[in-house]
Amino acid sequence: MKSEVNTVNNNISSLAQAKPLASPAVQIDFLNSDDLIKFETKLESSALYPLVSSDIDIFQVNLGKMCNQVCKHCHVDAGPDRKEIMTKETMQLCLDALDSCNISTVDLTGGAPEMNPNFRWFIEELSQRGKHIIVRCNLTIILANNKYHDLPDFFAKHKVEVVSSLPHFSAKRTDSQRGKGVFEKSIEALQMLNAIGYGKADSELRLNLVYNPSGAFLPDDQKGLENEFKRRLKNNFDIDFNELFAITNLPISRFLEYLVDTEKYEDYMQELIDAYNPEAAKGVMCRNTISIGWDGFLYDCDFNQMLDLKVNTASQHIRDFNAEDLHSREIIVNQHCFGCTAGSGSSCGGTTT
Ligand code: SF4
Ligand code: SF4
Q1: 5 and 215 Cβ atoms separated by less than 8 Å
Q2: Would you write out the chain's pLDDT as a tens digit for each of its 353 residues?
Q3: CB–CB of 51/287 below 8 Å?
Q4: Is the CB of 291 under 6 A from ligand 1?
């Protein structure tokens, strides 16, 4: 049987617990401390090294590490104790950057991005600019406090695409990964979104779900999972959604801690390495994405952001944003990247092949 993530959850981040692997530098050292084949070598073997970016299609903004949940696999090490959130001034720099180029999709993530006090202002500004807005909503935030109850209507007003994690269609599996009671609240939030048209076949309001494995194994076939989630959620809770994105757990942050604590690290890395797929490597999301951290620094992706691996360009902050400078940049890669290139590939939008 596939074993699941089930480490002790203290409801505070690893940083607050002073765990060594909360440090990006310690994670990088650890990822490079074994004799496993290097990611660069694999890329070279398929003539993809160095990995180079193309045009930026997606402007992904991390609004902060604060979250109402403390999920066991979280690559952000987010939680209620994290106070790092983007200021309105940095949001304005993001808007200035967007005004200087023709990137049409803005993807907001966190933590729980809705907990940033300027979240709605930022969405309104993006909406006025006609951007396609994606919000990575953890669902429970909608029910966490009265002030969030109208989020579904706010999202609908601005035609926000909602992307939400739901690791499983059973309460036991979801709660074991995301916390007690999360499944029940997630179902209620999904029903609220459905009630105003989200996820319905005849609606323009998009509601996508994200599945990630509950342990040290690769996700099953995305389409098969989507069909099963659709059937189970419809039959059991009358819930509809558009697509399911299957993503692979990358060996960083709290998932890395789990791998180390359970002595599964080497086996999991070897599984990722054995499943290396050059076609998936060609389609990794860092090639068409720029990721902006809560403090305005630029990264190739949200994972590199959490490892503090900034973009390989002369200017690394949103105040100096220049889309042309970022085009054709060499992507900073490391061992965690094997998570994006295994099997059918993995990105914020699911498989890449
Ligand atoms: S909801 Fe998302 S950001 Fe928050 S702890 Fe869970 S995985 Fe991390
Ligand atoms: S972890 Fe980031 S940099 Fe590495 S392959 Fe994935 S998206 Fe690209």
Answers
A1: yes
A2: 344 443 335 689 999 999 999 999 999 999 999 999 999 999 999 999 999 999 999 999 999 999 999 999 999 999 999 999 999 999 999 999 999 999 999 999 999 999 999 999 999 999 999 999 999 999 999 999 999 999 999 999 999 999 999 999 999 999 999 999 999 999 999 999 999 999 999 999 999 999 999 899 999 999 999 999 999 999 999 999 999 999 999 999 999 999 999 999 999 999 999 999 999 999 999 999 999 999 999 999 999 999 999 999 998 999 999 999 999 999 999 999 999 999 999 999 999 98
A3: yes
A4: no
Predicted TM-score (pTM) of this structure: 0.96
Domains of the chain: 52-267+282-332 (3.20.20.70)
Instruction: Tell me, in angstroms, the distance from the centre of ligand 2 to residue 253's CA.
Output: 15
Task: Please give the C-alpha separations between residue 12 and each of 105, 251, 315, in angstroms, as whole numbers.
Answer: 32, 20, 34
What's the CA-to-centroid distance between 195 and ligand 1, angstroms?
25
Cβ(286) to ligand 2 under 6 A?
A: yes
Does 95 contact ligand 2 (Cβ within 6 A)?
A: no
Which parts of the chain fold into alpha helices (H)? Answer: 24-31, 39-45, 88-99, 119-128, 141-144, 151-157, 171-178, 182-195, 222-237, 253-261, 265-274, 278-282, 302-306, 323-326, 338-341
Q: Quote the CA–CA distance of 106 and 109 in Å, as a whole number.
A: 10
